[in-house]
Records
---
Amino acid sequence: MPELPEVETVRRGLQPAMEGARIRRVDQNRPDLRFPFPPGFAERLAGRRVLSLGRRAKYLVAHLDDATALLCHLGMSGSFRIEAQDDAVLPGRFHHARSKDARHDHVVFHLETETGTRLKVVFNDPRRFGFMALAEAAALDTHPLLAGLGVEPTGNALDGALLAGLMAGRRMPLKAALLDQRLIAGIGNIYACEALWRARLSPRRQAATLGGRPGRPPARAVRLAEAVRAVIAEAIAAGGSSLRDHVQTDGSLGYFQHSFSVYDRAGEPCRRPGCHGTVQRIVQSGRSTFYCPVCQR
């Protein structure tokens, strides 16, 4: 499943085409994806103008001029592409073929930009695990899909003190706590592994060991908060990881996967200078965890 950096990359790719554009019409080619589309989905969007395109955790959020918000989740294999009116794909750097099979083009947004240019934004999803919903923009924080989501890992709000407070008293593996979307919104399996390696912390460590006295977070909590922010920021700058069939809006693939230090590197030497450990793979809560048992404690 695309993680936060991939979703943020998609948002940045769609932003120039969608912000300020008017939705001329929407072609909804099936009644449902992972969930049924809202009643009157295409009709409610027709004629609306996109005021802004944001992101909350792994959701794309398009704010419309009627105080409605369009929520989009990519699921396992969903992706957007931008096409000119003559169906020519806008220029992009293509490294691998991507799905353009019309059978999987489930939603097509016909747009007219502020300059009068007509574009199509196409949502393609072979596995149909993605979904779309409509919500009141003023009540997004209480919407069932977004209510209870934790702090975003992309800004200075996530610091050592906050992380220590979130982890205090939690008797679960540290990696499981990082993946709890109620604590930190948007961290997935890949970046949890990478951040823990950078912070030299074992994924098996009890989360509560990062707790501390108010105002005095342990050094390990400070290291992990910094590692999380850095890993996410670097992955966004690199365009995401592009595992399996994930692609950006212009069809190109991200490069952060070439910088993995532990993820999917079981049996290989640890990349930390001076460490002679070997990356191991274990299973936690049904998901693969990669870490170095020598330098991660």
---
Amino acid sequence: MKTATEKRIEFRNALKSGKILVVPGIGDALTAKIAEKAGIRCVIMGGYSVSASILGQPDVGLLTCSEMVNQLTGICNAVDIPAMADGDTGYGNALNIIRTERMFEQAGAACIFFEDQAWPKRCGHMDGKQVISAEEHAQKIRAAVDARLDKETVIMSRTDSRAVYGIDDAIERSKRYADAGAEICFADGIGSREELEKFARGMEGSGAYIVANMIEGGKTPLIPAKELEEMGYSIVFWACSAVYTISKALYDLFTDLEKNGTTEGTADRMIEFGQFNHIIGLDTYKQLERKYKVDRDD
């Protein structure tokens, strides 16, 4: 397994490559492993997916820092690709964010982002959001940057101000957060292609990489990665695609099973026993068993 620092350097090199990173949202270690097997270069652990996965509840600020750290630890230990992580609001003020940053970093995150919503926060594509002042969040970003134990850890800012004050405010806030040390800036809930283009133009010269967030059925139009790259984006999140796909597949499976009492009608959509064991690493554990086997006298 690669060390956390090696993964962080890999993430930084991917950003420098000029090729946009396509980053799916995941909520658990199994989904992260499947993404890695499919050739994905980086994943993002988002609060939306984690809240659905471990609580069965919406992303409305119910998760604690410790619950997110526990989930992140499992994800980072499961894969050799970099994992970005949703640090929400940092769970408090600038002092809280110091502890949150270090806990997420020690869990193995390559990049951690912190948003400027007022608590309780909610998914960036939900209505009714409120944001704190730009100055307060800039100080929180400074605190996160200063708190890093490994300087390869990337701090990213997120603003939700577009829904409250408009796209121009989101640009100005993001530039301010970049000045505070955010190496990547993310404005969520952007409402049109034109606004995506405007955000990219507005961030030119800031020195920060920028992120677009695609959510099926959300507020932002779905735009292919190549087109976003041409606009100037370095990362595109497909934040909820995995959890939506998993939910649909399981709903179809369970309704068919209840109706017919068998999985014969859905078996062709499953990974079979041996292939699944390979994905989760059974082969490795069999090798370790042979390596450390002790012959016992009867």
